[in-house]
């Protein structure tokens, strides 16, 4: 594939904390307008990798390429992020939470209504975010990440704590983004969810990218995942 079709690439990316290697020589390519599923057990290095892509952590070595140039902090204007818990002011309404961000980012108030419609939270009125269900909080977190009309949206374990209906709603929302010109990186340890959403997957175990590619028709993702995780654990012994 032509490199111009990739929105993000990492080349031999590493992150070491003291003597612990959390991310070990990861090279991956993310196609534009797709959903990329990043799979791995808890503690595999998924969040560390995403935090480097979003500038929360500095790589120990390696490269991050965004839209065919070396990543810089200026690229954050084109990246939306929801890592771990949504960053909400629980005493404020959905509109007020978004208003704080539009002021900080210098964005027009019109974006507030647009993102609330996108995540289906336009009728919450004066209800404070602290009274929202877990699913509503996740959707408000995604609305915040969407304010700057990102080309790349990064979601780390977005279905954590959601009930089955909330997971289904979120799945449909994520699948709608590529048609709107947005690429999504979705991190999860729930194989069945990623299988239903992602166009391509990467499987990380012990900081190593053990698989990177499409889910082949008829392939058992659980078997593939288990093989990759076991192989990397054996190599680590």
From TrEMBL:
Keyword Amino-acid biosynthesis: no
Pfam family, one: ABC_tran
InterPro entries (UniProt xref): AAA+_ATPase, ABC_Gallidermin_ATP-bd, ABC_transporter-like_ATP-bd, P-loop_NTPase
Keyword Lyase: no
Domain ABC transporter intervals: 8-231
Entry GO MF terms: ATP binding; ATP hydrolysis activity
Name of the featured protein: Lantibiotic ABC transporter ATP-binding protein
Higher taxonomy: Bacteria, Bacillati, Bacillota, Clostridia, Eubacteriales
């Amino acid at each position: 594939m032509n490199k111009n079709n990739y929105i993000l690439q990492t080349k031999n990316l590493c992150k070491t904390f003291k003597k612990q290697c959390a991310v070990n020589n990861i090279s991956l390519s993310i196609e534009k307008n797709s959903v990329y599923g990043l799979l791995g057990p808890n503690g595999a290095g998924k969040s560390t990798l995403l935090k480097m892509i979003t500038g929360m952590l500095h790589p120990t070595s390696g490269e991050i390429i965004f839209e065919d140039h070396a990543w810089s902090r200026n690229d954050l204007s084109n990246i939306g992020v929801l890592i771990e818990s949504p960053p909400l002011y629980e005493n404020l309404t959905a509109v007020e939470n978004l208003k704080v961000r539009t002021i900080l980012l210098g964005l027009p108030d019109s974006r507030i209504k647009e993102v609330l419609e996108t995540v289906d939270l336009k009728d919450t009125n004066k209800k404070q975010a602290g009274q929202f269900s877990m699913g509503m909080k996740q959707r408000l977190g995604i609305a915040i990440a969407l304010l700057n009309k990102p080309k790349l949206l990064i979601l780390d374990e977005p279905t954590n704590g959601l009930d089955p209906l909330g997971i289904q709603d979120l799945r449909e929302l994520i699948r709608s983004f590529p048609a709107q010109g947005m690429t999504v990186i979705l991190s999860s340890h729930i194989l069945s969810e990623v299988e239903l959403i992602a166009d391509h997957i990467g499987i990380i175990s012990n900081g190593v990218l053990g698989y990177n590619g499409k889910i082949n028709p008829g392939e058992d993702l659980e078997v593939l995942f288990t093989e990759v995780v076991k192989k990397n654990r054996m190599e680590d012994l």
